Amino acid sequence: MKIRFYHFTFLMIFFIFYDSFGYEASNLSDLKTSQINLFPNDTKASSLLKNLEYVSGLELNSNHEDFGGLSGLIIEDNNNFTTIGDQGIWMTGQLILNNNDELTSISNAKLGYLKNEKNIYLVQSGKLFTDAEAVELFNGKLIVSFERNHRILSYEKIEGVSQLFYDKIKLLDLPNNGGIEAMTSLKDNSLIFISEDLVDSNDRIVGFRLYENKLSKIFVKKNGSFKPTDLSVLPSGDILMLERSFTPIKGAKARISLIKYQDIIESPLITPIYIDTISPPMIVDNFEGISSIKSNSGGYFIFILSDDNFNFLQKTILLQFHWDGSLN
Predict the structure, then answer these.
(1) What is the extent of the structural domain holding 81?
(2) Up-side HSE of residue 143: CA atoms within 13 Å toward CB?
(3) Mean pLDDT in runs of 10 for the chain (328 residues)?
(4) What is the pTM of this model?
(5) 328 inside domain
(6) Does any domain span residue 228?
(7) What residue spans of 21-144 are helical by DSSP H?
(8) 286 vs 317: CA distance, rounded Å
(9) Is residue 247 part of a domain?
(10) Burial class of 215 by CB neighbour count within 10 A (0 to 12, 13 to 18, 19+)
(11) Looking at the domain assignment, is residue 40 inside a domain?
């Protein structure tokens, strides 16, 4: 009996290990970063941007089979970053800035796979469980929102086992592939998250505020074909919102707006304050991640990251802008 028991235990351990083989985190030693120019050579940059100043940009490439589909972005004060992706992956690294605070490359890049509460890689459960869309720091932990199987998971470390942070969004009638794309924490320790495609009968984008475990609706004024894809909180408590738009005739666009903290708390309808739009002839892609850090010279550096959808016609692009905080 003992021999059979030990044999059975050995087989169980072997199959668990074998089933997880190939999903270990990898150093992206082959990650290539190429400098790109946002503007065509014959275009005056000042005529295209209203409030932002373009600083630098990189196109990212790797031979790793699951590199791409990136969505959501956090950049910390030490320039370390975390992003997540559609295939249930996470990617970390550090942004390298030169003496002029211009983004030049990425170091220590690493890619791994998100896990569930049972220490099982999400990718082993299929696409329904892997579609990570937003990542945020909240109470010292990383929280990640998912579409399709709508939920929010919490991680002590992004490579570790998760805990279920909030699952009642399953009850919010979110579109299957248009759920929580944009998420950030507020200075009152509440959390807001906004749907990509949930629009009410008054043509308002529907979002939610989670405060002291109580959920309330918020509404964001819709403007054209733009849809929210990410949020980034500023030291003031105000929020930057990234949106994207795509039409067959006009192509892709990305828009960055400001949401006032007081509007979220006090107003039944939030009206974002327009900052700038990235549109042709500028280089544009499917931008789904935004993060900001303070600039030593004043204002903020704003970074936006694109999701290439694993489409050879699209690219993984990281753009850096400077915003002095003023609105023209």
Answers:
(1) 2-323
(2) 21
(3) 49 46 87 94 76 97 96 95 96 97 98 96 92 95 94 96 88 80 95 92 94 93 93 96 90 96 94 96 95 95 97 96 94
(4) 0.92
(5) no
(6) yes
(7) 127-130
(8) 9
(9) yes
(10) middle
(11) yes
